[in-house]
Batch of 2 targets.
Target 1
Amino acid sequence: MSVPVRRIAVVVAALTMLIAACGGTDTATTESTAAPTTMPMAENDHDDFVFGEPADPLTADRVIEVVASDDFRFEPAEITVAVGETVTFRITNAGAIPHDFTLGDEAAQAAHAEEMAEMSGMTMPDEPNAIVIAPGETKELTWHFTQAGDLIIGCHEIGHYEAGMRAAVVVEG
């Protein structure tokens, strides 16, 4: 094999491996809860939440429709749930840019914001309390609330949270 042909073969092999590592199959659907295949879950996979726990959608007491929009808002802006309730949030991105939906207290919001900053433009993998919603996409996150208090739904795409993209979740005891 001549040197130029060998170089082409090496480049083709490298590109094939790169495409295989980054590509995979397109598993996105309009109602998907599967994590993206582009990156593994973050090192801190948030197994312990003080404000509740991920739950099976089949155990949900109700579904709450939430819309994320490009005017940096979630609708509804306030949601009330009860301790012991399991809720499926069905989030629709009605905008033309990606948004994320992060459920948590101030500490969880700060931790997720830090993770997003470290990702610097890469696609954030879905986590038990946080999902990324592409433009036009609808995804679900189911949560069992175990403790009364005030929580936040926040979007931590660059600049969104700072622009006010958050909603209140009141967990009544």
Target 2
Amino acid sequence: MSMTTNTMSTPAPSPSGIFLKDTLLLGQPAQIKCVEIGGQIYSISGGPIRTMRLEDEWHEDVKDPAAVIEFLKDNRDVRPDMFTFWQRLPDVQPRYSFHQEWDHWAALPVKSYDHWFNHHIKSRVRTSIRKSEKEGLVVRETVYDDAFVRGMTEIFNEAPTRQGRPFWHYGKDHAVIKQQFSRFLHREDMIGAYYRDEMIGFIMLSNAGRFGLTGQIISSIKHRDKATNNALIAAAVNVCEKRGLEHLVYLYWREDSLSEFKRRCGFEKTSVPRYYVPLTLKGTLALKSGAHRGWKAAVPDPVKDRLKQLRRSWYARSTGAAE
């Protein structure tokens, strides 16, 4: 699973202060509009409601929200319709008076590896990890070199769909993958899972200062019987303990195909406050109507589930491969 956007280079700003930044969006090269305020980079989304947020919000905190808002009010050329920001773990008690809602993360509290293994996970996960070790699965910290990238490339190109949707990185070659995944090596730990010297899974575990973040976790489909992802999570917990990180975060908590896996591995639904500050009339109307959350938030969960089932079936028929 990969995060939605990953930033690359930063061109010089225009006279308005807005500049384009190279990134990956849904796994493909793209550009996003950004502005620098108080030494931090903020991205501005397109669409009907132009929303600004800290570009690297998983890894940074907004230093001074009031100063950002004042800057936007004083700079008409930059002003979006909405400014949004959140508080990161472990800072989950609301501290600001702006309109606030809750975002839900999948977070695993890390006391120690032993505590996680013996008291925090389901017994079937412990059994699966022990079984995979007996069968020869080896999970260890490694480095981002050509061998690691070759393993990534082989795993990515196993199937055109994963979790019932087209897989972002299918069809990419070694050179493309090496370049696209090398941007944040300064804050990532590589963890590889090996069976008979073949890499069959990996995590690129990002250090977000306060927690570890599973920016990319994936394993080989043909070796799904090895419980590779369970073993990778175990290794990630161990790394978090060594790095002094008190949580391991698996992005958002959603009731989807991954939710039961997260529960079994000890992840919990953890709510963090997110704030929305309208800056235009359009932004105010969007906040009142709920449009600031996007169209997906307006679709009832049973309808979403049915649409996902239809999508999964359609892709399975169109590609001739079931997952």
